């Protein structure tokens, strides 16, 4: 049971890290300047939602790659 707890912590940390990196990179693009007709809170919420989607997708991709590599090494040993 200990492995499941560690795996969950790694997944949570990975998701939040990639979401933060996606949010940080989206903020550096200055997307809010393109949407001057919308309210600032709407643009920020849209950037946050986009960052969550992008960060979750990237995190899931990298966690899947790690899992596949782990399975490959377990089959050879």
Which secondary-structure class do the elements indicate?
Answer: mainly alpha
- Low-confidence segments, ≥5 residues, pLDDT <50? none
User: How would you spell out the order of helices and strands?
Assistant: HH
What is the general shape? elongated
* Separate helix tally: 2
The major beta sheet can be summarized as: none
Mean pLDDT: 89
Give the total of beta strands: 0
Rounded radius of gyration (Å): 17 Å
Alpha carbon gap, first and last residue: 23 Å
Oligomeric status of the shown chains?
single chain
How many structural units, i.e. domains? Answer: 1
Percentage beta strand:
under 5%
Helix fraction, binned, reads over 70%
Q: What this model shows, in words?
A:
The protein has 77 residues and is an all-alpha fold. The protein has one domain. The protein is built from two helices and no strands. The protein has helices spanning 2-28, 40-76. Helix 1 (2-28) crosses helix 2 (40-76). It is elongated and about 60 Å long. The model has no long low-confidence stretch (mean pLDDT 89).
Summarize this entry quickly:
This protein is mainly α and 77 residues long. The protein contains two helices and no strands.
């Amino acid at each position: 049971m200990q492995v499941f707890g560690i795996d969950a912590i790694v997944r949570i940390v990975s998701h939040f890290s990639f979401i933060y990196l996606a949010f940080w990179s989206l903020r550096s693009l200055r997307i809010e300047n393109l949407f001057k007709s919308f309210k600032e809170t709407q643009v920020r919420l849209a950037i946050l939602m986009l960052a969550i989607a992008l960060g979750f997708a990237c995190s899931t991709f990298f966690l899947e790659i790690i899992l596949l590599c782990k399975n490959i090494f377990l089959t050879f040993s």
